[in-house]
From TrEMBL:
Organism: Thiothrix lacustris
Name of the protein in its database record: DUF155 domain-containing protein
TM spans (from-to): 251-270
Xref: InterPro entries: DUF155, RMD1/Sad1-interacting
Keywords of this entry: Membrane, Transmembrane, Transmembrane helix
Record's keyword annotation contains Transmembrane helix: yes
Domain DUF155: 55-223
Pfam annotation, one family: DUF155
Amino acid sequence: MEYNVNNLLLNHQSDNTIRIHATLIGSRIDAKPFRADETLAINPLTIAVPDNGCVVLFRYVVVFFGMTMAQENQFLQRLLPLTHEPRNRPDEESLHLRIDPNQLEGADADGSLWLHDTSIQRLQLVAEMLARSAVLSDDEGRITKTFEKIEPLAQNLSKKGRVGQPKQVLLTYIGDSLLSQQRMVGRAEVADKPDLLWERPELEGLYLRLEDEFELRERHLALERKLQVISNTAETLLDLLQTQQSHRVEWYITILIVVEIGLTLYELFFKGH
């Protein structure tokens, strides 16, 4: 039997508006301890919250439907022992959901999201897209910081012809870039359709509109380009630095050879007579 949470959600909203709030709370959420009688659906795991709404859990993100801030905080306290590397300042995304079977599903000019109903599959799809947006926001913040650090190095090379940073710093930037690429591949599979569309293909139109609304594909591509610039810049500067060091060593060797030859000639021509 399909579970519908209209009553749970709308009973607590005076204007038939449902608050949706997604927060990235850590590097991984362990959802195993949740009881079977709390579970509305899986893949993604959807938990019933008595008289309040529901919660959808992902590996890094929790998405709340129809809950107050106090109720959300109470649930987050329950999740805290199950969260690996919890965030002090979680990345967050939020919007307001309205229900109307005659309205085109998707976001309107006011930023509200319209759905025909609050079936579990629709809520799961909305939750997944909002969770992806939260993950991308986290990636954007981290990658932008690295990008801002690498840009002055390229400017310094252009103006002064010098790298301006030690080898260890450049290796750190390359490592940050590789780690960010790994996280993006493992965390936000933005280009992939959600699994539930295989069972509910009629929701693909809603999926495409949400993808466009959150600009998921464009943001993902922009991050990939930034990562490529960071990686290429750091590797180029590192190569230049190593080349400079290699030339310096070659000069040291040349000087030592010249000195050695000079000493040998001195001994032959002066000490020998």
